Amino acid sequence: PHRVSPLTYGRKQVPRILTAHGTADPSVPHAHAVKLTEALNAAGARAALVTVAGGSHGFPKAQTDDIYERYVWPFLSSIGVLKTRVTAPQPRSASLSCSPRKRCGFAGEL
Asked: Which of 6, 36, 53, 84 has the most CB atoms within 10 Å of its CB?
């Protein structure tokens, strides 16, 4: 129903959001994550989506570690949750991408 959909609560005032979602998720279609990210950005919120090509509902440890290294730690650093500044390293895995691209470097952009 409408009130349990995260789209219901998309507005400019929500905290910054970073979502990681697999394209082969059997539980929640990847299209839902895309739609949520687009709706949040359209509402003026700041959101980004890490897409894991072929990823299911949950990821193997090595892939999770890569997501954290490339996106989560820099994201948390950029919003002041981590005390040390972390920047995203060069891509190691072709199976990961982030959009909107301008918000995936986290240099104060997200």
From this structure: 36
H and E: helices and strands count for the chain: 3, 3
Cβ 17 vs Cβ 46: under 8 Å: yes
Tokens 């072929």 found at: 54
> In the predicted model, is pLDDT for residue 94 greater than 70?
no
* CA pair distance 19, 14, nearest whole angstrom: 14
Residue 24's SS3 state is coil
Tell me, what amino acid is at 59? F
Range name among 57-61, 76-80, 88-92 with the lowest pLDDT average:
88-92
Which residues is 51 bridged to in the sheet? 21, 97
